[in-house]
Amino acid sequence: MLLNPRPSEALPAAHDRVYRGLRARVMHGQIAPGQALTLRGIGKEFGVSMTPAREALRRLVAEGALSMTSSGRVTTPELSNERIEELAAIRALLEVELASRAMPRAHMALIDRLQTINASVGEAAQRQDAVAYIRANLEFHRTLYLRAQAPAMLAMAETVWLQMGPTMRRLYAKLKRSEPPHFHRLIVAALKAGDEPGLRLAVRSDVTQGLKMLAS
Question: The whole model's pTM is what?
Fold first, then answer.
């Protein structure tokens, strides 16, 4: 048994830790659109060498969470209006389907959990805490979609969330919310009533209305 793993054995764990940490920050809007990331800065922040930092960045670039220029400069993407509209359309397709598949498994414990999370969204809005708001908002959606038991579809939805994280921070600043999204309450009400058309409409409206405002 090796008490001290060799560098080659420790690398995957270090790379994964950096990747997950950066991924969460991008998805939750902790990094602004167009902000540059450096290997030196990441290595210092996470206490790792350049190699795991580089591998984490490459993985995030491949997922569309970060952009890399021909010179190797890495930044969070600044999305065009066309790109925002495209991602909003993808969210509408994927998330409406996920919600519809989740509805037959939406027991009261799930509905209670969604209401608790939505209260957290409201608390973050009142504090004007953009990162906490985005994190709780995504938790609301993920909690519902997990009941769909469609992991590949959920992974695709999370990739879209990842690409939009910095832009969502900008959207939050524009909307200046002080309470949870109105459509969250409609989603919960539709689940309670077993109203699938109402659920599909509420989810579609929730994931597209704000983004359309940002692109306008």
Answer: 0.87
Of 82, 194, 177, the C-alpha closest to 136 is 177
In this structure, the chain runs to a length of 216
Q: Please give the backbone phi and psi of residue 169, each rounded to the nearest 5 degrees, phi first.
A: -60, -40
Instruction: State whether residue 75 is helix, strand or coil.
Output: strand
SS3 of 144-171: the string is HHHCCCCHHHHHHHHHHHHHHHHHHHHH
Residue 57 contacts by C-beta under 8 Å, 6 or more apart in sequence? 22, 37, 39, 42, 66, 68, 74
- The rounded distance, in Å, linking the Cα atoms of 80 and 66 is 15
Report how far residue 37's alpha carbon sits from residue 57's, in angstroms, rounded to the nearest whole number. Answer: 9
Provide the residue type at 166 as one letter: P
In a structure prediction context, what are the per-residue pLDDT tens digits for the chain, which is 216 residues long?
444 444 444 456 888 999 999 999 999 999 988 899 999 999 999 999 999 999 999 999 999 999 998 888 999 988 888 998 999 999 999 999 999 999 999 999 999 999 999 999 999 988 888 899 999 999 999 999 999 999 999 999 999 999 998 888 877 776 677 777 899 999 999 999 999 999 999 999 999 987 766 665
Rounded CA separation 216/203 (Å)? 21
